[in-house]
Amino acid sequence: MRRVWLLAVLVLPALAAATDYTIVRRTTIDAGGPQEQTEYWGPKRLVVDDADQRTIVDFRKQELTAIDKDERTYWTMPLDRVVRQLVAIGAAVEALPGPAREMLGLARRVTISPTGNTSTIAGRRAKEYAIGGDGVRGFVWLAEDLDPGAILGDEAVAWWRGGGPLRAVGPLQDVAQAIGDLKIRGMPVWVSVTTTSESRSTTVESQVTAIREESPPADVGRVPEGMRQEAPPLPAE
Question: Which domains does the chain carry?
Fold first, then answer.
């Protein structure tokens, strides 16, 4: 659940001016209690902040920093190492037998197709796309005038094409992968995905509630004082 936000940063083509945006996003699983996070998008930097953690992706330094507010710890890792580790993990997953992939929920093939519907969400004009596939249904709305690649800059585009950030787990990851494969332009502002299996059904919904053009707080891109640095969770190379 704590990495659901990554859907928002797994899609990247080109549009929008190089300015700062504050985006508030609310996510629920199976109609449970909502989790709210604030995202700070700007040239060469993305910060995702909530009550429990903060993630800073700095494209000038080519570095990812993850902060655990409860434990008062943080770790950093070069972006190229993150990509290499993800490639290795992806190769291991692909090597699993079919039944094992299906049991782990890794066998889904998601399709995305435009419905022709448009609406205004959080003050932005958005287009709807239907989500389908084996045991998957739902929708995603994309605000085409907000393009993550154009907001973050050229350094980010190269990284996205090399593998992107730590992948979200579960159905949002499948949707993000489908959007990326089709090179569909726009910022996800509302997504609802239901996955079903023989044993259960799960619905994940994530919706942007506010988009503001404004500078981020001065300290949001820094590690707060008093935090203890730890080793990254990914295995050593």
Answer: 4-228 (2.50.20.10)
